[in-house]
Design brief:
Organism: Abeliophyllum distichum
Order of helices and strands: EHHEHEHHHEEHEHEHEHHEHHE
Function: ATPase required for the correct placement of the division site.
Protein name: Putative septum site-determining protein MinD
Bound molecules: adenosine-5'-diphosphate, magnesium ion
Helix content: 25-40%
Structural class: alpha/beta
Keywords: ATP-binding, Cell cycle, Cell division, Nucleotide-binding, Septation
InterPro entries: CobQ/CobB/MinD/ParA_Nub-bd_dom (IPR002586), MinD (IPR010223), MinD_FleN (IPR025501), P-loop_NTPase (IPR027417), ParA/MinD_ATPase (IPR050625)
């Protein structure tokens, strides 16, 4: 059984596990699952609402849409009102991951054309009514000339002015790359979640994107390291989370293990965090959502093999 253990006293010289330069490992005291998940209280919402958060990466296929769906629904389950904007115009798929593809009748393009009202384009989730999806355009349709960051700023202002009140979170699923679609998606955001996998191509793109976000005035950038495989880290075939943290120098919002349940849930249109019993990646997304709410971060993470077989929750050291 694997175990994901937060470190209390991270010392890079001891914890750095580079694929080509094995370093000694230290043992860490497991902590209780309750102190991590804190199910016995509601998280304290930090910062001003709406919190406009862009989920970005640079490289495609690293888990932005998966993160948007799972963190978004976790926030809704915690009682916060959430609007998720699918700004990945060319390869829109957030609706599929949420199982809402048949309910998208109108998009932002129709709202801007005056063909429908904003509330007609907002698709309420089937399970959590405080979660709404907003798509920028229909699949394969072209954006109107001049559609850009200003349109998204207008959209955020319009969401603030709704009768229902200001949403707690506006989460923007960003397209891959660093061209016009990326610039449009990050324009209204005041914080960013950078999703990366522990491989060199993803890290290079993530580093470039970090620079661009900072240039755009987004200073609150946290990272999620996705598709982490303990067996590969142990075999020194994959960078450890500490390597990633050292390379990017960003606060850590969460570490998501590689989990076949993610692919299963993607294909079912049923986000992982809703699974009962929860999958490991689902629990990790839930913890990341907690940290996002409280503007908190993890200090450092070590993924290690447990000495002997234990229960399911031993993943979290419980
Ligand atoms: P992006 O939006 O960055 O292009 P997606 O969220 O669409 O990436 O994910 C790309 C693929 O990777 C999907 O098939 C998804 O199911 C898979 N995936 C994402 N995260 C994980 C994970 N932690 N474990 C296993 N598969 C994953
Ligand atoms: Mg995507």
């Amino acid at each position: 059984m694997i175990s994901l253990q937060p470190l209390t006293n991270p010392k890079p010289s001891l914890l750095y596990v580079h694929p080509f330069s094995p370093k000694p490992r230290t043992k860490f005291k497991p902590i209780s699952i309750h102190s991590l998940l804190q199910y016995n209280r509601k998280p304290q919402l930090a910062g001003e609402t709406p919190r406009v958060v862009v989920i970005t990466s640079g490289k495609g296929g690293v888990g932005k849409t998966t993160t948007t769906a799972n963190i978004g629904l976790s926030l809704a389950r915690l009682g916060f009102s959430v609007v998720a904007i699918d700004a990945d115009v060319g390869l829109r798929n957030l609706d599929l991951l949420l199982g809402l593809e048949n309910r998208v009748n109108y998009t932002v393009v129709e709202v801007l054309n005056g063909d429908c009202r904003l509330d007609q384009a907002l698709v309420r989730d089937k399970r959590w009514s405080n979660f709404e999806l907003l798509c920028i355009s229909k699949p394969r349709s072209k954006l109107p000339l001049g559609f850009g960051g200003k349109a998204l700023i207008w959209l955020v202002e319009a969401l603030k002015a709704r009768e229902e009140g200001v949403p707690d979170f506006i989460i923007i699923d960003c397209p891959a790359g660093i061209d016009a679609g990326f610039i449009t998606a990050i324009t209204p955001a005041n914080e960013a979640v950078l999703v990366t996998t522990p491989d060199i191509t993803s890290l290079r793109d993530a580093d470039r994107v970090t620079g661009l976000l900072e240039c755009d005035g987004i200073r609150d950038i946290k990272m999620i390291v996705n598709r982490v495989r303990t067996d590969m880290i142990k075999g020194e075939d994959m960078m450890s989370v500490l390597d990633v943290q050292e390379m990017l120098g960003l606060p850590l919002l969460g570490v998501i293990p590689e989990d076949t349940e993610v692919i299963r849930s993607t294909n079912r249109g049923y986000p992982l965090v809703l699974n009962k019993p929860p999958a490991l990646a689902g629990l990790a997304f839930e913890q990341a959502a907690w940290r996002l709410v409280e503007q908190d971060s993890m200090k450092a993470v070590m993924v290690e093999e447990e000495p002997k077989k234990r229960g399911f929750f031993s993943f979290f050291g419980g």
